[in-house]
Structures are given as structure tokens and as C-alpha cells.
Amino acid sequence: MNNQIFESVDQYISNLVGHEDDALIATTHSLAEAGMPAISISPNQGKFLQLLALLCKAKNILELGTLAGYSTIWMARALPKDGQLITLEYDPKHAAVAQKNIDRAGLASQVQIRTGKAIDILPQLVEEGAGPFDMIFIDADKPPYTEYFQWALRLSRPGTLIVADNVIRDGKVLDENNTEPAVQGARRFNAMLGANTAVSATILQMVGIKEYDGMAFAIVK
Fold first, then answer.
1. Distance in angstroms (rounded) separating the CA atoms of residues 11 and 158
2. How big is the CA angle at 82 (ends 80 and 86), to the nearest 5 degrees?
3. Under DSSP, is residue 51 helix (H, G, I), strand (E, B) or coil?
4. What is the DSSP annotation of 123-138?
5. In terms of pTM, does the model score above 0.85?
């Protein structure tokens, strides 16, 4: 089997259950318009995250890595009216584009973008007593994934769902000699997750229009 069949099936599923409205389509278009990388999650992955948030009955969601706000919008739409989502974005340009997209989606009152390094903002959230969050989605720079997860635990409660994207890296995590920082970060994260007794976790391989990767899922004990 090749990538074409994976992409075709992904599109088939999207047409059935992963419909994108004008706000989501505009968010995807905003990437090219702003010269940003087209690395958002797929529509099917967005719908999957939305369903996970609904299963968690999430009222408070934390996201690491906003980009243009595509995944942010999918998850925020699962929130009740009094729910809140805090999303962290390093690049001020990306944050500005995301804010416009979030405003267009009618979610400005429920979504707060914080700009800066996640590794600096996470301790601030702990100090502020911002948690516990019901769901945390990690989709930022890969080298510090392990540290992000450790901070996520401090912002969690028993039952919190922590999701980490891009942890298989096209299968490159199997190569111990691969020196790519993103691959090394994913390998280090995966090894930590497998040994972590504070959570019950698994990793799912994923294929589709985003090619081949995987997501890790952990429930805090």
C-alpha cells in the first residue's frame, strides 16, 4: 500500500464525519497567506481531539503549540459555555494569525493565547494555579517533549488526558543512530512515557494526509 490510498481514505472519512466549516478552512488558508508551515493536524485528527475532549467532559484544556489555531478551534468547540482553553505559542506572528482565526470562529471569549516559550510559561501557570486541566494537548517543538510532559503532570489531576502528537516521526524513532533533534526528542519522550508510573499510556500509529506518524495518550492515575 502507498500514501495515496492513505490520503484517499483520510479524505473519505473527512467527507463523512470530519466536515470543515468556513472558519476551519480559512484557518488552513491562513498558513499559506502568512508564510507559515503547513503542519497543522488533519481534519480527522481535529475531530478525534474534539471527541476526546467531549469524552473527558473537559471544561479546561491546555494546548502547547498553537500555530494558526486549527487544532485549537476543534478542541475549543467541545467546551461548555463556561469552559476555557489556554494555548501557548512561541512565535508572536503565529499567535497573531491564530487570534484572528479564533476570533473568526467566535471563540475569543473561551480561548486565551499566551505568547512565549512554553517551557517558561508552564511554571507560570503552576504558580498561578491555572490547573488542573482536564485535557492537555502537546504539539510543540519536539526536543523538550519530556519536560513538557513533566510540567503537564503538575497541571493535571487524576483522570486528566494528556495527548502528545508526532511521536513516531515516520518510523524514524526506530533508528537509535538518527541524530535529528525532533527524532531524538520523540525517542526520549517515548522512553520516559513507557517508564512513567504516574500514568497509564499507549501510542497509536497514524497514517493519512499527514503521512506516517503517531500520537501518545496518557491518563493520569
1. 36
2. 90
3. helix
4. HHHHHHT----SEEEE
5. yes
